[in-house]
């Protein structure tokens, strides 16, 4: 009998302790650091590797400076820009990619966009 009373008492104390506990809110913090320094911009999805010349259209540049995409995008909410997804590894591109810190070539290839996206990488329309 004593064993049963001990277990019952322990259960009652446990229920009382849980009833009096306050609910803690989870806090999530993500630090993404600085955007990569890529000569033609970087892909709009992690790991944000450098995109080759001809991937982003002129709408993504302001005075020759890449305005950013993904978490570093700082353009208007209704922004739409053109990309050439043939230069995207997620679409089968296996060609050369610049590395962060590389410099742009003196003459970039003529841009031929085929997909419209917002600054966060969402497809907005096809051309």
Assembly state (oligomeric): single chain
Work out the radius of gyration: 26 Å
Low-confidence stretches: none
Strand content: 5-15%
Order of helices and strands: HEEEEE
Average pLDDT: 80
State the distance separating the first and last CA atoms. 80 Å
The total of helices stands at: 1
Which bin fits the share of residues in helices?
Answer: 10-25%
- Counting helices, strands and paired strands, the structural category is little secondary structure
Biggest beta-sheet profile: 3 strands, antiparallel
Give the strand tally. 5
* Coarse shape: globular
Strand order across the biggest sheet?
Answer: 3-4-5
Short description:
The chain is low in regular secondary structure and 127 residues long. The protein is built from one helix and five strands; from the N terminus they run αβββββ. The strands form two sheets. A three-stranded antiparallel β-sheet has the order 3-4-5, with no helix packed on it. Strands 1-2 form a two-stranded antiparallel sheet.
């Amino acid at each position: 009998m004593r064993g049963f009373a001990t277990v019952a008492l322990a259960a009652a104390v446990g229920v009382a302790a849980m009833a009096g506990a306050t609910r803690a809110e989870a806090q999530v913090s993500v630090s993404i650091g600085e955007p990569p320094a890529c000569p033609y911009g970087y892909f709009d999805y992690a790991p944000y590797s450098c995109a080759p010349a001809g991937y982003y259209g002129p709408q993504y540049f302001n005075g020759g400076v890449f305005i950013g995409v993904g978490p570093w995008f700082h353009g208007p909410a209704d922004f739409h820009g053109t990309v050439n997804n043939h230069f995207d590894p997620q679409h089968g591109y296996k060609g050369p990619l610049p590395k962060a810190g590389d410099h742009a070539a003196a003459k970039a290839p003529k841009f031929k966009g085929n997909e419209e996206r917002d600054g966060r990488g969402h497809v907005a329309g096809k051309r």
